[in-house]
Fold SHSP domain-containing protein.
Amino acid sequence: MADSSHQLPLTDLKITPTAWVAKADVPGFKRDEITVEIEDVKLGKVLRVRGQKNNSGWEPETLTVRERTLANFSRSYYLSGTTFDVNGEF
């Protein structure tokens, strides 16, 4: 059986002369479980989208046996040649 706790969200990316628009499907995640960041690196900028969710509903340290894991993902996109300001919305 595949490990579904590390599946990447399906993402569409549209690049125009003035914008990069990304739309990602993250079913089952709440807004506060998703992080979107832009990081400056040597060759430009990197867009990082991360999510982390506790599937069991209980805190990990209170469990005697843990078979359901944290669901998490991380996607990164190098924004090559980006010279415009970066902003976003959820």
Notes: The radius of gyration is 16 Å.
